[in-house]
Amino acid sequence: MEAAYGDEGGDLVSLLIELGRAHLDPTKPAVAIGHFERASSIVDKDQNVVLKGKKNFDIVSILLTRRASLHARPFIEASHAAYKQVLQANDIRLGLAAYHMAIFALNDKRREDAINYFNESLNAFEFNDGNLGDLERTVRTMLVDSLERIGKSEDATEHCLAIGERQEWRTPPRPLYMEPPVLDKSMAVEAPTGRVVMSFTVDEQGFVRNSRVASSGAPGLNAAALAAMGQFRYAPRFENGAAVATSNVNFIINYDFAGQPAPGRKSNFKMPSSLGSKAGGGGK
Fold first, then answer.
1. Is 249 helix (H, G, I), strand (E, B) or coil?
2. How far apart (Å, rounded) are the C-alpha atoms in residues 280 and 283?
3. Disulfide engineering: 243 pairs with which of 34, 179, 204, 269, CB 3.0-4.6 Å?
């Protein structure tokens, strides 16, 4: 192929990507990344901007599938930049590229940038057919989490409502955002392991209200558990097209201080496999 088309021939791109796939070893990725970088460099000179986006995203897909996502950043950036030039905002290809840009921004702790990319991806993932697709649900949940972490709870509300309106209220309800309680070993001398059961109301906007300790294995942890629950967000329950408050929702906080070297450290906080939440009867 090189003899026929030259070292920079566009016909080499697909072959180089397959060579990269064949040589990819996540523990020793240099050879594969070299093939991918060469393919990306060649396609970057192509006048077909959509092709630039596609080929770079093909490389990203391979790296993600083979658990080599740490090396995907330059290729997702190239794909997103190309697609951004030519695709409509609701194009799924642009949405996927923007989603991965958001994930890298989160890894860099650039939450404002991540929120912008998630909103961009939402343009492609949101459908007006009354259904909530997996991609839209994932992005809205990530937006709730990101917005809550920078103190923009009110901005998160629209996403809590959008999820709640188009999903069935199930037992147990899963929180969209949660923070573990800040505990230390000195707070649980009487019970190094155990659980605290919280009971509360999820209001019409998904905020936790009227939280109380239903039962506790260590009263010294109750205040921290109450403070943590006040930060949780849920998708509210809907009845006849309107959001309603739901009382008697429970959440179980499991804790384990075993192996903690000294007081003042965060506890070994563990969530049950079901996220620890149970719901009682509905209604206000």
1. strand
2. 10
3. 204
Burial level of 110, CB count in 10 A (0-12/13-18/19+)? middle
Q: What is the DSSP string of 207-245?
A: BEEEEEEEEES-GGGHHHHHHHHTT-B-PPEEETTEEE-
Beta partners for 277? 251
With vertex at residue 155, the alpha carbon angle to CA 153 and CA 157, rounded to the nearest 5 degrees, is 75
C-alpha closest to that of 166 among 136, 187, 196: 136
Task: Give the chain's radius of gyration (CA, Å).
Answer: 24
Whole-Å CA distances, 60 to 9, 68, 78: 22, 9, 10
When pLDDT is cut at 50, 70 and 90, the band that residue 145 belongs to is very high
DSSP 262: S
